[in-house]
Amino acid sequence: MLSVQEVSRSFGGVYAVRDVSLDIADGEVRGVIGPNGAGKSTLFHLITGHLATDRGAISLRSANVDRLPPHRRAALGMSIVFQGARVFRGMTVRENVMVGAHSRTRAGFVSAALRLPRHRRDEREIARRADEALARVGLTAWADRQAGLLPLGQQRSMQVARALCAEPRLLLLDEPASGLRAGEREALAVLIEELRAAGLTIMLIEHDVAFVTRLADRITVLDLGRVIAEGTPGEIRADPLVVSAYLGEPE
Ligand SMILES: Nc1ncnc2c1ncn2[C@@H]1O[C@H](COP(=O)(O)OP(=O)(O)OP(=O)(O)O)[C@@H](O)[C@H]1O
């Protein structure tokens, strides 16, 4: 589904991501973890196209995408849930999700957010897709309520619904569990499990190692911009390099 080959990116001569390679199979849930500053967010933005690579290649379903802008990658099936993604607080939950259906083109996103006339004719079809996405994340009862009233856990589910509305093949989640309470985290984990069961390919960047370990088929561990380990959650837990990256070398 996604192939990242020896990708690098530096800022002011310092590598944030260095020679990183990873391949995500169809239907896989891949976790990406690493200590602060490991390069997780940089890698995420290189994959989505919000940052340019210095070197290396990125392909989605065998199509080279590393020179494409984000909306072209979205059109090929990448959907993103950003950390702290925008919630249009005065709009309804359904309208917030409908914005996702337009995210495949940049112009579409803007006109959808502004509700320009040429979009009205498509609106019924998009509302139907939004309702389907809301049902998948368990937010049907909230569809007509103001998004600003949603508790944080449900706002996160709404953002997932927005991403699903674009009918992605690959869903990219940037620290989706951050700031959530235990119950909300559990609900999000169940939602991700359901999406995996439905066959969606997912890449999950997380600080919360327990959360990733529960959900991922395989985990890639970054430290100082490089991949230091990759394997199943069991292999990663037992890897001495991973333990020392997180806990520091024993005295
Ligand atoms: N736009 C930027 N300009 C300069 N340096 C940057 C920029 N973005 C990231 N960096 C640097 O690149 C390195 C990797 O940062 P990155 O945010 O990708 O790590 P991270 O693993 O996501 O960290 P965290 O878990 O703290 O979010 C850090 O040293 C950071 O300071």
From TrEMBL:
GO terms for molecular function: ATP binding. The keyword Protein transport does not apply. InterPro entries: AAA+_ATPase, ABC_AA/LPS_Transport, ABC_transporter-like_ATP-bd, BCA_ABC_TP_C, P-loop_NTPase. The keyword Cell wall biogenesis/degradation does not apply. Residues 2-249 form the ABC transporter domain. PROSITE patterns: ABC_TRANSPORTER_2. Keywords: ATP-binding, Nucleotide-binding, Transport. This is ABC transporter ATP-binding protein. It comes from Sphaerisporangium corydalis.
